[in-house]
Design a protein that fits this description.
heterodimer, A: alpha/beta, five-stranded parallel sheet, 38 strands, 21% strand, globular, B: alpha/beta, Rossmann fold, four-stranded parallel sheet
């Protein structure tokens, strides 16, 4: 016992969240008995102001120099308490948090005795680590004062303007030839019935001429490297074949062009030429050539546009260009995809001409649309007198579509109904729905207006649409559930209110940026309530539908939030990097290069020939610990997640009744977070698990696992992010290899390899985490005492034999 | 017997969105204003007006069209069966069609110590492989032909044709001399006790003879043996395959060649084989394996196929007749000469409907798939 270490333990009741299922008084008394603990205090709400005051007072009064806060998950309040103890004069890294809530009280609600026993163990393990904590200094790194906004829809536009107006340089990358996104294609917006492009247009112009916004339209993100404050981005500027800066959008080229194609902006209802402008209000206001359908290519068969252009700004030999940018923060605002209802054969979309989607309807009724706003139906261009809207197409379903509610479709239909009546007051409109969701400001009002105007709201989703040969009118069959009757509605046109979904290409961008997607496919935020626009990766933010379906108001709100949070980063000029870094112990390094091979950030350089020792670039080191786990010579130590600390946690966990305990290594970003979610969801599982959190599963060395078995663990779990989703890019590939090597070693030693489990658990997989915990307990019960005794004997013998040439293990 | 709380959980009825899509596609609801699948769920779960003696619960055809379209895949047919079981427990009397003769036969067959002579119909040229651990499960075809003699059904012909095809494909099998009814009909009418008795008796036969694999032609037996038996009996390791699953790949890969059959035919997907087992392509591959056969599709086919209106020999009314009439009209609309089906019950019910329409010229021929395939073989050899 090191007399210079004085640990203060603070046990939190968290109201009844912890105290309801754990005897926190008993835990507090128990903590007093642990080595190096000089004071143990119980608090009702430790994170509250009075709670934090008490912590600080206690630190000062008892000369505490290491702090254990046993409360909720460190992923929630670690920074809160680090700030708290630093206000009491302690280095913030002298804090260890023990999760008594998400990983104990909430998941063992009905077994107070076992939950309390586990809580005591958790505190004991935390105290053991705390004794070995060292003060750390955080590296300050400069922040590039520039932001990248990916996506030029209304969210991206708003974020870019907010940041640029705030004095920051912004790069706005948009993959379409013009910014504007889906909003530019809408006619009117709810609930105000504003003209969409009229309100968006001025913002688009502002972006186009803002001195601090460099707009790169018709461009895509190729590669992103670096870290918060220091991202390096490669952008591919696709060839337009027209010089953007010189084109006056006069349109003579398009007149001359002989190639006619369906116009995507007008949903295919009218045509455009191969050389075209996306839409009249496009920003940048320049034409471009759809080279796939151009006849001017190899061999040169047509140069009509070149000849027609007065400004000579068409270059058929243009090439894509790669541009490299340096930015401090990134905002992802790439927007949404739209559900394609072709699979719903019962509605006949794609077969029956007069069944259209809401986006197609927008173009038909829009003044800038293919019919200049005269609402006509596709088959015969007659004005439909009876129109039906079907809600929830592709939403709220497991059966061909997406399970979630798409947020905007109800109000969009309400708006559409009023639009139609504005122009054609004699139209009979039927809305077929399950629920009308009018939750926002002004929404219910708009719904009332629609009802008062005579729009029929029929509660029931149609089961089938048939087409009448000849007239191409439609017959819609529905159960009117309010009166429990099957009804048939003859209609001239049917509009399918299709849902929103993530863009198909989102996965590619998510991989480039190392972002996780939720089960719905949208991007996952750091915390759904408290950090709704932050990505889990520092320095990256979200705005708009890329995060979840939402309307324009919410997209704009989020964009402002993302810009503000990005500003915080950019304004600071420098940021402190978390002091979890790898450090080489040069006296032990033999320059083998194994560490450099596994570093996902290429932050280690080793000259194998010169044998000058491994050199780590601290600013680039993300702290995953894979190098430390890979080094077989004990030459790399992790500041703040050292081998000694982890070994101490393992041996403390297994000091009593080891055969009853399962040791689980959980990675901070995914599996530990999955455990947190299981806790917040109050999913129950047996209390035999003892968790050891590392930043990355790559930190878990073979030695840790064997040590756990040597100390009597019946089952060990190694878990991390799903392959491909590792927070540290690819570190979990090393984890996989290591575990596979361990299984071979175990087989050779006569230890059942099933006793070492490997699971990839994402932060969104709460139920799966609980299921795995239950499975582990089942497996543990099948491990015999003989197996454990044999394992301990064999491993102890092995270690003694190898002690000379391997890492020194503290007992 | 019926744990309704568990059934509610297993069938996911609490997830019902109350949208009514099921009612629109339900063949019974089309013709019977008192039958409304959505309303039955709502009444039973969320209101005070449900009466377990409500006759509506007996009208369901278990055609699974509701399940096919439901947003949350609510297992409505299974829920109805649970309600039927509850009704029987509460003392409801189940109407039995055809004088209850089929149920009588089923109950007789459920006695463990029964010894039957049930394969006397087997023609001499069919080759049985005594040592095979594969058995062909015949089903109730022999009984059907007796009970429905007046309809001119020959479901046994379908079985014999199936055996001939298996011989031709050189797939070895044996028969079970003491086979019992699979019990699906009893399960569907809420007689779980009766079903279990048959299942246990069959399992006894299977174990006794070391049966490892079962081939069957009747889709209802297939569904029952493959899905219901493991659920009900627990320790059940027998592989169950449908005849069409076995034959279709062989025909597609030209390993066996069918003969000629020049005609315009349309195929009626039996509910249990199509929507139930997702075997839509296999029967069609067998049909198009016959030269000269032109296959046309009815308006409601594959996943959207219209039920033949069969019931588990329980409730049978004018509504069933109307559903059958609609199916026959759809076949007529595509001007097919032959309506092919691969299920004995479909055969019986559609022929019964035809009979009630009266003998007319231009009435479509209703033929069995295996029978046609085997017939075409005769042309070749």
């Amino acid at each position: 016992m090191d007399a210079s270490v004085r640990i203060g333990v603070f046990i939190c009741d968290c109201g009844l969240n912890i105290a309801g299922s754990v005897d926190t008084e008993a835990v507090t008394k128990y903590a007093e008995t642990l080595p190096n603990v000089v004071v143990s205090v119980r608090n009702r709400y430790t994170c509250s102001d009075p709670g934090q005051q008490e912590v600080k007072k206690s630190i000062i009064a008892n000369n505490v120099n290491r702090v254990v806060v046993a409360s909720c998950t460190p992923r929630l309040h670690e920074s809160t308490f680090r700030t708290c103890i630093s206000e009491a004069g302690l280095n913030p890294y002298l804090l260890e948090m023990a999760s008594l809530r998400e990983h104990c009280s909430w998941v063992h609600l009905h077994d107070r005795e076992m939950a309390t026993k586990k809580a005591k163990d958790i505190v004991k393990i935390a105290v053991a680590r705390a004794a070995l904590l060292q003060p750390q200094t955080e590296l300050e790194i400069p922040v590039t004062d520039a932001a990248l906004v990916i996506g030029g829809g209304v969210a991206g536009i708003q974020a870019a303007l907010d940041l640029a107006d705030g004095g920051h340089q912004v790069y706005l990358v948009e993959e379409q030839p013009s910014i504007g996104g889906v909003m530019a294609a809408l006619d009117k917006t709810f609930p105000t019935m504003d003209c969409s492009i009229c309100v968006l247009g001025p913002k688009m112009m502002d972006v186009g001429r803002h001195p601090r916004i460099r707009l790169m339209a018709y461009s895509s993100i190729e590669q992103v490297s670096g870290y918060v404050g220091n991202f390096k981005v490669k952008v591919r500027r696709k060839a337009r074949y027209v010089d953007e800066t010189m084109c006056t959008a006069c349109g003579k080229c398009a007149e001359a062009c002989p190639v006619t194609l369906p116009d995507e902006f007008q949903q295919g209802f009218s045509t455009r030429k191969s050389i075209h402008i996306a839409f009249p209000q496009a920003v940048p206001s320049a034409y471009l050539i759809d080279m796939q359908h151009c006849m001017g290519n190899n061999p040169v068969a047509c140069v009509k546009c070149v000849e027609a252009c007065d400004k000579h700004c068409i270059d058929l030999n243009a090439r894509d260009k790669i541009v490299e940018l340096e930015v401090g923060s990134i905002i992802v605002a790439t927007g949404m995809g739209i559900y394609d209802p072709t699979k719903l054969t019962e509605y006949g979309y794609g077969k029956f001409e007069n069944v259209i989607t809401t986006m197609e309807f927008e173009r038909l009724i829009c003044g800038g649309g293919p019919t200049e706003g005269h609402l006509v139906r596709p088959s015969d261009h007659k004005t439909p007198k009876r129109i039906g809207f079907i809600q929830c197409v592709g939403s709220r379903t497991d059966n061909r579509g997406n399970p979630y509610c798409s947020n905007v479709c109800c109000m969009n239909t309400v708006k559409d109904s009023l639009l139609i009546l504005e122009h054609y007051p004699d139209t009979e409109i039927f809305v077929f729905y399950m629920d009308m969701r009018a939750f926002g400001k002004g929404f219910e009002d708009l719904l009332r207006r629609s009802k008062e105007s005579g729009v029929h709201y029929v509660r029931g989703l149609p089961g089938e649409i048939t087409e009448i040969a000849g007239t191409q009118n439609l017959c819609l069959k529905v159960e009117n559930t309010t009166v429990s009757r099957l009804e048939e509605y003859p209609l001239d046109m049917v509009v399918l209110s299709v849902g929103l979904e993530p863009k198909a290409e989102l996965k590619k961008l998510a991989n480039i940026l190392n972002l996780s997607q939720t089960s719905d496919g949208f991007l996952m935020e750091a915390h759904p309530k408290l950090r709704p626009v932050d990505a889990p990766t520092p320095g990256i933010f979200f705005a708009g539908c890329v995060e979840a379906p939402k309307d324009i108001k919410d997209s704009v709100t989020q964009a402002g939030a993302a810009a503000a949070r990005s500003s915080i980063l950019l304004n600071s000029g420098k940021i402190k990097n978390q002091a979890i870094k790898a450090q080489v112990l040069q006296n032990k390094c033999i320059s083998c290069g194994a560490c450099a091979k596994v570093c996902p950030y290429s932050a280690i350089k080793v000259d194998i020939k010169a044998k000058t020792g491994a050199q780590i670039t601290a600013a680039a080191c993300a702290g995953c610990g894979t190098c430390a786990a890979e080094c077989r010579f004990g030459a790399i130590t992790m500041q703040h997640f050292s081998d000694e600390q982890i070994i101490s946690m393992i041996s403390t966990a297994l000091s009593e009744d080891p055969e009853t305990k399962i040791i689980s290594f959980l990675c901070n970003w995914c599996s530990y977070a999955g455990g947190d979610l299981a806790g917040t969801s109050r999913l129950q599982y047996p209390p035999n698990n003892r968790f050891i959190r590392t930043m990355c599963s790559g930190r878990v060395s073979e030695e840790f696992v064997m040590y756990a078995f040597e100390k009597g663990a019946p089952i060990v779990l190694v878990s991390g992010c799903h392959i491909g989703d590792c927070h540290y890019i690819s570190a979990n590939q090393q984890t996989k290899k290591r575990v596979e090597r361990l299984w071979e070693r175990m087989k050779k030693l006569g230890i059942r390899p099933e006793r070492l489990q490997l699971e990839w658990i994402s932060a969104a997989e709460g139920p799966r985490f609980a299921e795995i915990m239950r499975g582990l307990e089942e497996k543990r019960q099948k491990v015999t005492q003989e197996e454990i005794d044999y394992t301990r004997k064999v491993l102890a013998e092995q270690r003694i034999a190898k002690k000379a040439s391997q890492k020194q293990m503290p007992e | 017997m019926y744990n309704l709380d568990k059934e509610i959980q297993d069938t996911r009825v609490r997830l019902c969105l109350d949208c009514g899509k099921c009612t629109v596609v339900c063949p019974v609801a089309q013709f019977d204003v008192n039958f409304n699948p959505r309303l039955i769920i709502q009444k039973r779960l969320n209101s005070k007006v449900f009466d377990i003696k409500d006759g509506a619960i007996w009208s369901c055809l278990s055609c699974h069209m509701c399940f096919e379209r439901c947003n949350y895949r609510v297992k409505f047919p299974e829920f109805i069966i649970a309600l039927r079981g509850e009704a029987v427990q509460e003392g409801a009397r189940v109407m039995q069609s055809h004088g209850g003769v089929l149920q009588a036969a089923m109950h007789m067959m459920s006695r463990q110590e029964l010894e039957q002579k049930r394969i006397d119909w087997l023609p001499e040229d069919i080759v049985l492989t005594e040592q095979s651990d594969t058995r062909f499960f015949v089903g109730c075809a022999p009984y059907f032909d007796v009970v429905f003699q007046d309809l001119g059904v020959n479901t046994l012909d379908g079985v014999i044709s199936a055996l001939r095809l298996l011989n031709k494909a050189q797939i070895p099998f044996n028969l079970l001399a003491n086979e019992r009814c699979c019990g699906r009909d009893l399960l569907l009418q809420g007689d779980k006790k009766g079903f279990l008795a048959l299942a246990e008796a069959n399992l006894h036969e299977f174990s006794r003879h070391g049966v490892k694999r079962i081939i069957t032609y009747c889709p209802e037996c297939y569904s029952c043996l493959k899905l219901e038996y493991p659920k009900a009996l627990g320790n059940y390791e027998i592989q169950v395959v449908s005849l069409v699953e076995l034959l279709a790949p062989l025909i597609k890969e030209k390993k066996i060649k069918l003969g000629n059959l020049t005609c315009k035919a349309t195929y009626h997907d039996p509910c249990t084989l199509g929507r139930g087992a997702r075997l839509f392509d296999e029967p069609r591959q067998i049909l198009t394996g016959m030269e000269g056969l032109k296959l046309v599709e009815m308006e409601y086919n594959r996943e959207r196929a219209l039920c033949c209106g069969a019931s588990p020999w329980a409730y049978c009314s004018a509504v069933n007749r109307q559903v059958q009439g609609q199916r026959l009209a759809q076949a007529k609309a595509v001007a097919a000469e032959i309506l092919v089906t691969a299920c004995p019950k479909c055969q019986i019910h559609l022929k019964c409907a035809q009979k009630s329409e009266g003998q007319q010229d231009g009435q479509i021929q209703i033929r069995d798939l295996a029978t046609l395939a085997a017939l075409s073989l005769k042309e070749v050899s």
